[in-house]
């Protein structure tokens, strides 16, 4: 048994460090699975959790706007140095807000608003938008300084969320062209 972790044929100055200790040093003391675990938990909750979607009424949409606004404010931090290239979250979320306003304006009276709030697609869409916005906010809370490192896992997760928001915007525009359900 070689207690000094040296490799066979290595000179006395060469020592072998187990891969685990090399990885621990390269990760600067952070748990590499933390982000994956949270993503896994979110995926399970999305897949098997009871649908918590309430009627997508005006109050729920306004709550969604507040969450989206918080994400935009967090992304406007100059230290983040976001690149203005697709998918650019600082364009996507305001466009989503505008389209949701257009939709609500088309369903302005109480009868039409009740019809919209019972629309299954719209309920799922708003629920998903709330979840994704909360996930982005949680990224900033948990990622702290890592969010400012362009190559960090947290930053890549923000980019993934930007892409998801982009697809969600394209979808809502396709299903509600000119603010009307098709």
Automatic annotation (TrEMBL):
Residues 50-182 form the Cbl-PTB domain. It is an enzyme of class 2 (transferase). The keyword Phosphoprotein does not apply. Pfam families: Cbl_N (PF02262). One of its GO terms (cellular component) is membrane raft. Keywords: Calcium, Metal-binding, Transferase, Ubl conjugation pathway, Zinc, Zinc-finger. Pathway: Protein modification; protein ubiquitination. One of its GO terms (molecular function) is zinc ion binding. This is E3 ubiquitin-protein ligase CBL. It comes from Hypotaenidia okinawae. The lineage of its organism: Eukaryota, Metazoa, Chordata, Craniata, Vertebrata.
């Amino acid at each position: 048994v070689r207690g000094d972790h040296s490799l066979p044929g290595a000179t006395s100055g060469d020592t072998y460090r187990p891969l685990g200790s090399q990885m621990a040093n390269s990760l600067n003391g952070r748990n590499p699975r933390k982000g994956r675990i949270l993503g896994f938990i979110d995926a399970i909750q999305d897949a098997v959790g009871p649908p918590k979607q309430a009627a997508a009424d005006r109050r729920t949409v306004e709550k969604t706007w507040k969450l989206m606004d918080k994400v935009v404010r967090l992304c406007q931090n100059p230290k983040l140095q976001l690149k203005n290239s697709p998918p650019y979250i600082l364009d996507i979320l305001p466009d989503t807000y505008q389209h949701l306003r257009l939709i609500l304006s088309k369903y302005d009276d109480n009868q039409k608003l009740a019809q919209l709030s019972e629309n299954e697609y719209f309920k799922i869409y708003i629920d998903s938008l709330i979840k994704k916005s909360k996930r982005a906010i949680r990224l900033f809370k948990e990622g702290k300084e890592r969010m400012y490192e362009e190559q960090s896992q947290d930053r890549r997760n923000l980019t993934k969320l930007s892409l998801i928001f982009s697809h969600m915007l394209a979808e809502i525009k396709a299903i509600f062209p000119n603010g009307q359900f098709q």
